[in-house]
Amino acid sequence: MSQSVMGQAMVTTEDITVLGKVSTAFGIKGWVKVYSYTDPITNILDYERWLIKVGGEWRPYQVEDGQTQGKGLTAKLKGVSDRDMALALSQLEIGVPTSELPEPAENEHYWFQLEGLKVVNTHGQWLGRVKELFESGGGNLVMVVAACEGSLDRQERLLPYVDAIVLDVDLDKGEIQVEWDSDF
C-alpha cells in the first residue's frame, strides 16, 4: 500500500479519489492541460490541493489558478514553473482525499462507490459485480456487470444506469437491485 505525505497526515491510496489527469503542458510558463472526470468538468478546480501520482506515489500540488480553455481546462500548479516541468506531469492521475468530496445528494452516488457492488435482479439472481461505469454518449450512463465467483453465469452485461433498471442501491449491504432479465 503506497503512502504519501499531504501536510502532516499520511494518505493511503484507499483514501484518494481520482478526479482526472494531467494531459500535457500548456504554453511555456508551467501551465498544464487537465482532463477532468468531474461533472461539470470545472468542479476539479474547486479543490485547492491536488494529489498527482508521480512514480507510483501521490504527491501534493497547490493549485494556484485554473480556467477553461476551449472545451478543456488548464491549471497552474505551485512549483511548476516551465514547460519541461509541466511535461513531466503528462498523463499522470489527479486525485484528492476522498474525505474532501462533497456529500452526494440523497439517492446519488459516486461512481467509485458503485464499483465492486453485487448486482442482483428482482428474481434474486446474482448477475455479477459492477466492474465499471462509463458514459455512452448523450449523457447515458452504462454499468458494466462482470461475472464473478457465485454469479449466475460467466456473462458480462452492460446495463443502462437509469431509474427504470436500477431500482435500489444499498451501499451498506454492498448490493444493487436491478430490473433485468438474466437472458439479456
From TrEMBL:
Gene3D superfamilies: PRC-barrel domain, RimM. It comes from the Bacteria. It is found in: Cytoplasm. One of its GO terms (biological process) is ribosomal small subunit biogenesis. Residues 19-99 form the RimM N-terminal domain. Residues 111-183 form the Ribosome maturation factor RimM PRC barrel domain. The keyword Cytoplasm applies. GO terms for cellular component: cytoplasm; ribosome. SUPFAM superfamilies: PRC-barrel domain, Translation proteins. Keywords: Chaperone, Cytoplasm, Ribosome biogenesis, rRNA processing. Its main location: cytoplasm. Binds ribosomal protein uS19. An accessory protein needed during the final step in the assembly of 30S ribosomal subunit, possibly for assembly of the head region. Essential for efficient processing of 16S rRNA. May be needed both before and after RbfA during the maturation of 16S rRNA. It has affinity for free ribosomal 30S subunits but not for 70S ribosomes. Belongs to the RimM family. The PRC barrel domain binds ribosomal protein uS19. This is Ribosome maturation factor RimM. It comes from Parathalassolituus penaei. The gene is rimM.
